[in-house]
Specification:
Order of helices and strands: HHHHHHHHHHHHHH
Number of helices: 14
Number of strands: 0
Strand content: under 5%
Largest sheet: none
Shape: globular
Distance between the termini: 66 Å
Length: 385
């Protein structure tokens, strides 16, 4: 019998060894942060007043945030080109609001059964295209007219330099009129402005025919699942559920938790990395504006204000607006170049994997519930309704 060749040993390069070492150190830091949050007595009383399940979710969320702050905080402080890259990045994010509104208007028409979209079978699929809006095949490319309207919005009273733009639910259908005169305050400013200028707000008044049908089937499925659960868990009792309030993990809660339990330097890291606004003087945005002013690489004209703090806030707000007006045309030119030369709009492999993973999760859960509901209602197990 022939001797099997000895497996060749692979010697890592110095760079490879360093990468492995850094990965191990990062994993160790993550575990230390998690362990501290779970075991440190200083957190125990605080967490005891909240629902246990939401506490676990908060701990994971905060541990991830703290790890990012500790890993990247110093880098952001020292980053010399932060200003230019930051405004270019923000401009790119804002630019795609144009397509999000067009996608939302399509959703209104689809829900009202005014149009059919081959790529859409269920309403939840608009959530997938929200994440993949750059490559959405059923909305037209951005035109110069649309871009100019967006620039008009950027310089209007409807625009706020929102640091949480990437967390907005652009395809949340329930951003609708409260009545004929007022808009839901949760609706993005661009949607409000666009509705006023183009009359597209009328689309939001169309009936949600498709959504109503889906909801009916989901209720059938949910009811059956609950009945099965009660049968399998005789100990189930709605009265003995954990009634303590749920702990939230939004921006305000994150800042409050840092102030109560953590080293104050995390606030600075938070402001630079998450662009969150925190303030110690009842002036929203002051601390961030002051930090941005310190890091600015170009002279910033002074604006008017009732106090020196307001002067700083107003000066930085106007500076940010000027920078955004400079960066957006660059972003649009790059976009047009890609469109005209059939160059992909640029999602990373990781982003694409995330999009597909989320799509599968939505399909598996939402689609399964609707098919089950149709069966329970004595209807065919398909989506022809």
């Amino acid at each position: 019998m022939a001797k099997r060749a000895k497996k060749e040993e692979v010697e890592l390069s110095e760079v490879g060894k360093l990468m492995v070492k850094n990965t191990l150190e990062e994993d160790k830091l993550k575990q230390e942060i998690l362990s501290d949050l779970k075991k440190n007595p200083k957190y125990k009383e605080f967490f005891s007043t909240y629902n246990k399940q939401t506490v676990q979710a908060f701990i994971k969320h905060f541990a991830d945030a703290k790890w990012r702050y500790l890993k990247y905080g110093e880098m952001y402080l020292k980053k010399e080109d932060e200003e230019t890259s930051r405004y270019k990045f923000r401009a790119e994010q804002y630019f795609w609001q144009i397509q999000q509104k067009k996608l939302f208007d399509k959703q209104c028409l689809w829900r009202a059964e005014k149009i059919q979209i081959p790529e859409i079978q269920l309403s939840n699929e608009f959530n997938y295209w929200e994440e993949a809006v750059k490559t959405c095949p059923f909305i037209d490319p951005v035109t110069e007219t649309e871009f100019n309207l967006f620039l008009e919005f950027i310089n209007s009273e409807y625009f706020e330099f929102d640091n949480d733009y990437e967390y907005c639910s652009w395809q949340s259908y329930y951003m609708v009129f409260e009545d004929d005169e007022s808009l839901d305050e949760d609706m993005p400013g661009w949607y409000q402005f666009h509705n006023k200028k183009t009359g597209s707000g009328e689309l939001m008044k169309l009936p949600d025919i498709r959504g109503t049908k889906e909801s009916k089937y989901i209720k059938f499925a949910s009811k059956e699942r609950m009945e099965i659960y009660k049968e399998e868990h005789p100990e189930y009792n709605e009265d003995n559920h954990d009634k303590r309030p749920s702990i939230s993990f939004g921006n305000d809660e994150l800042i409050s938790f840092i102030k109560r339990f953590e080293d104050p330097v995390l606030l600075k890291y938070h402001a630079l990395i998450d662009r969150g606004e925190y303030d110690d003087n009842d002036l929203p945005g002051f601390s961030k504006a002051l930090e941005d002013l310190k890091n600015a690489e170009i002279p910033i004209p002074v604006s008017e204000g009732a106090s020196w703090q307001e002067t700083i806030i107003n000066s930085m707000a106007e500076h940010e607006l000027r920078m955004l007006n400079k960066a957006l045309p660059i972003v649009f030119d790059e976009y047009l170049f890609r469109v005209q030369n059939n160059i992909a709009m640029g999602y990373s492999d990781k982003e694409i994997e995330s999009q597909e993973r989320n799509k599968k999760t939505l399909d598996d859960n939402y689609r399964k519930s609707i098919l089950q509901g149709r069966k329970l209602n004595g209807e065919p197990e398909d989506l022809n309704f």
